[in-house]
Amino acid sequence: MDPLGLQSAHAAALLPIVVNRQENAPTDRLVYVGGEAGAFLVMRPLDGQSAKAGNGGTIGFRAATPSAVDAFHAAGLMAGGLDEGAPGPRPSGDRMTYGAYLRSPEGHKICAFARLSTT
């Protein structure tokens, strides 16, 4: 069941970073989980108001490899997401990561990143 009509868009982008839909979640929401990658929930707001995209927030997932980040970005674009930052190396504090950013169909900014070797 896909109460919000968003399952295929999210599943396409999240599959490359090994985030799977939690099948036993309540039927009024989509829940994706995946090891160290974190969790991502899509649901109707509990206050009954219209859902709004976060302003200034980014939902991030750790990917195992840069190629998984590439696949996340490509699949997300194919599923209707918007490019918010092409895959590539990015500074992150005292290390480098390889990341990509998408805007989901409902307006949330989502990224996937992999840590790059320091050697």
**N-to-C series of helices and strands:** HEEEEHEEE
- Overall helicity: 10-25%
Largest sheet: 4 strands, mixed
The CATH class, by name, is Alpha Beta
How many runs of DSSP E, i.e. beta strands? 7
Order of strands, main sheet, comes to 4-7-6-5
User: How would you classify the quaternary structure?
Assistant: single chain
Mean of residue pLDDT values: 78
Total domain count? 1
Q: Which architecture does the CATH hierarchy give at level 2?
A: Roll
CATH topology: 2,3-Dihydroxybiphenyl 1,2-Dioxygenase, domain 1
| N-C termini distance | 46 Å
**Rg for CA atoms:** 14 Å
CATH superfamily: 2,3-Dihydroxybiphenyl 1,2-Dioxygenase, domain 1
Low-confidence regions: none
Strand content: 35-45%
Number of helical stretches of at least 4 residues: 2
Q: Assign an overall shape.
A: globular
What are the key terms here?
119 residues, alpha+beta, 2,3-Dihydroxybiphenyl 1,2-Dioxygenase, domain 1, four-stranded mixed sheet, three-stranded antiparallel sheet, 2 helices
